[in-house]
Specification:
Helix content is 72%, strand content 6%. The chain has 356 residues and is mainly alpha-helical. Helix 5 packs antiparallel against helix 6, helix 6 runs parallel beside helix 13 and helix 7 runs antiparallel to helix 11. The radius of gyration is 21 Å and the shape is elongated.
């Protein structure tokens, strides 16, 4: 048992590690809700950032009320014995996940903070608890939702898009292609061909209706991401005894916003432009599928990956429109496979250092 002074110091180490993870999460995840807005040319990159930052902040600050089960799920209770839940354990998990996510962000690859955290829990748990590591608890609580959610998002997004396209055609709304100027995240503004809906519904421009619904759906995804991602990091911070759950949620919200504002450009380009070309209707379908699945999972306490759901939805729309770019999906899938073992390896190394 560490003296009280050393416990407090390690608590602050856990806090710093958790905030670094929150920054990394914002950098990799912030644009996932609004990638369809950016890719379809609905809003500029800066406007997309604003929508993502504000909507995620609302969800993040509400997570203590909306998703308390996720906070408990990522506290590592039940995975390792209580005696192994030391500040060093929590700090190793948070830092390992943060390093994993930051590396992927630098490469422009959207990966799952959830997978990185689970990898960290397993790696640190293996070193700290050995044979007492309760891997069986991961099955129903973590692995099943994580495996099924991207498959569900592909199917749901494709179905919503095809249904919406059928309704559009039957109501006589046409998609007219024209040249539009698009501000990019990492390059100068460029001209691109974009589809614009021509026609009206009850005297209101069809394009305006779709655009408004698209922005609303992107905001809902950001809200859902705040519900789903913040509790996972908060679950680690509550063990630091430095911040209360409420103040921890505020600190995480600030750092997630900072990460998104500073370093989300490369992942934004991958999601918005490389997986499939998108128009307003396709983006709207993808966002509705993502927000529905993530909000439902958050309420049920299921730790799905917002990344996998959002990427799956975008890919599902691309498949339905016969425009999916398989070459862009391969490196993303490889990164997904590598996330958990890399997080586990880093956490095992970190907890083995002579700081505990």
């Amino acid at each position: 048992m560490l003296p009280a002074r050393e416990l407090l110091l390690m608590g602050w180490v856990v806090l710093v590690a958790g905030l670094v993870l929150a920054f990394a999460n914002g950098a990799n995840d912030n644009m996932k809700g609004v990638a369809t807005l950016y890719g379809s040319g609905s809003l500029s990159y800066r406007a997309c950032l604003a929508v993502a930052t504000l909507s995620t902040a609302v969800g993040s600050l509400s997570c203590v009320i909306v998703a308390p089960k996720l906070v408990a799920a990522f506290s590592a209770k039940g995975l390792v014995p209580d005696a192994a839940l030391t500040p060093a354990f929590l700090a190793a998990v948070a830092l390992a996940a943060a390093l994993t996510v930051l590396a992927a962000t630098w490469m422009g690859l959207p990966i799952s903070t959830t997978h990185a955290l689970i990898g960290g829990l397993v790696g640190a748990g293996f070193v700290a608890a050995g044979p007492q590591l309760a891997l069986s608890s991961l099955g129903s609580v973590f692995l099943l939702p994580l495996l099924l959610s991207p498959i569900a998002s592909v199917g749901l997004a494709a179905g919503i898009y095809l249904a919406g396209r059928t309704v559009r055609r039957r109501t006589g709304i046409e998609a007219e292609t024209g040249l539009y100027i698009q501000q990019t995240a990492i390059a100068a503004p460029a001209g691109e061909l974009r589809a614009r809906y021509v026609g009206s519904i009850m005297g209101i421009s069809a394009h305006a209706i779709v655009t408004t619904a698209h922005v609303a759906s992107a905001s809902l995804v950001g809200l859902a991401r705040g519900f789903n991602d913040t509790p996972k990091i908060l679950g680690l911070l509550v063990g630091s005894a430095v911040l209360t759950p409420a103040s921890g949620a505020v600190a995480i919200t600030v750092m997630m916003g900072a990460g998104g504002l500073i370093a989300s450009g490369r992942v934004a380009e991958t999601l918005a432009r490389k997986i499939t070309p998108m128009n307003e209707g396709q983006g709207l379908a993808g966002n509705f599928a993502t927000s529905f699945l993530v909000v439902a999972a958050s309420r049920l306490g299921l730790p799905v990956s917002t990344t996998h759901v959002a990427t799956g939805s975008i890919f599902g729309v691309g498949l339905a429109a016969n425009e999916a770019r398989w070459a862009a999906i391969h490196p993303i899938l490889l990164a997904w496979v590598a996330t958990l073992p890399l997080g586990a390896l880093l956490a095992a190394i970190l907890i083995s250092l002579p700081w505990s």
